């Protein structure tokens, strides 16, 4: 809002009434702002009005003096007035010249003051902007610190999960090796049972042949036939027992095979979880390296335990 002449004059009157010098700076401070150019122009009119009000009153010589002095006194008075007017005219010219120079100086000072005030306002605006940027930078630093702490916690959690996955994988590996040993024992038992069954079948065939021969010779050797029949029954019972043993071994072998297959699937899932955990840890390490300042020592980063590479299927079978 522009400052009016009346406001400038009122401020100058207040300062003069308080006994203070109404300078441009004092008037601008009393107004709370404003252009030095406008204030200077209004103050020039104010000072002119004050000088006109304070100027002495010039009147003609009193009638008593004129009557007493007569014509001589009038001539002397006229000469004095002429001399005074001449001197006053010269002083007015000098005063006008000084006023003109003072006006130029005042105008230059007012322009300089306006320029300084504008530069000061710009500097204040720049300071406010820098303060806002500093506050925003501090907030960003705090946010990055929080994100860094969160990333460190996530990295620790991922490392913990990777350790758990590694322990689970090792445990599954031991279980697979144990079941593999059991399977080999079952295979050996099955081979032994097959050998026994083969021997029993051979005995059955042999006894069957002997039974046939005994039946043909039944009429001649009833006692031998009865004995052979008993031996054949025993052989059949042994063959049935061997068949049952073979079926039980086959069932155990199939159960062990299913358990080994389940363990292999569990191991594959554990390896997949370990791989994902390792990828998460690598990603977190990358994000942590991106937000950690370059001047931070590398030794201050939390250690990351890499998951052990799982063995091949062939190595497990071996």
TrEMBL record:
InterPro entries (alphabetical): KfrA_DNA-bd_N (IPR021104)
Protein name as it appears in the record: KfrA protein
Organism field: Methylocaldum szegediense
Key words, A-Z: Plasmid
Residue span of region Disordered: 213-318
Residues in KfrA N-terminal DNA-binding domain copies: 4-120
Pfam families xref list: KfrA_N
Domain of life: Bacteria
Biased composition (Basic and acidic residues): 213-243, 255-286
């Amino acid at each position: 809002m522009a400052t009016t002449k009346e406001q400038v004059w009122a401020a100058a009157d207040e300062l003069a009434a308080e006994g203070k010098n109404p300078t441009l700076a004092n008037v601008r401070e009393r107004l709370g702002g404003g252009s030095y150019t406008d204030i200077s122009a209004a103050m020039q009119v104010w000072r002119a009005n004050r000088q006109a009000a304070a100027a002495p009153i010039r009147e003609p010589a009193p009638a008593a003096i004129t009557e007493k002095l007569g014509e001589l006194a009038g001539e002397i008075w006229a000469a004095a007035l002429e001399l005074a007017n001449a001197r006053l005219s010269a002083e007015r010219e000098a005063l006008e010249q000084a006023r003109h120079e003072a006006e130029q100086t005042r105008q230059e000072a007012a322009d300089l003051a306006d320029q300084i005030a504008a530069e000061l306002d710009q500097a204040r605006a720049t300071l406010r902007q820098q303060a806002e940027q500093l506050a925003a930078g501090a907030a960003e630093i705090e946010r990055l610190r929080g994100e860094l702490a969160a990333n460190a916690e996530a990295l620790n959690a991922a490392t913990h999960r990777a350790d758990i996955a590694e322990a689970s994988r090792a445990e599954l590996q031991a279980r697979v090796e144990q079941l593999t040993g059991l399977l080999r024992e079952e295979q050996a038992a099955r081979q032994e049972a097959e050998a026994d069954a083969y021997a029993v079948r051979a005995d059955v065939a042999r006894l069957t042949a002997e039974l046939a021969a005994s039946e043909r010779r039944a009429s001649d050797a009833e006692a031998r036939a009865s004995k052979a029949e008993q031996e054949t029954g025993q052989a059949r019972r042994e063959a049935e027992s061997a068949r049952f043993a073979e079926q039980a071994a086959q069932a155990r072998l199939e159960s062990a095979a299913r358990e080994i297959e389940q363990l292999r699937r569990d191991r594959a899932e554990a390896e997949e979880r370990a791989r994902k955990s390792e990828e998460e840890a690598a990603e977190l390490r990358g994000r942590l390296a991106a937000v950690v300042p370059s001047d931070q020592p590398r030794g201050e980063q939390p250690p990351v335990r890499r998951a052990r590479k799982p063995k091949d299927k062939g190595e497990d079978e071996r």
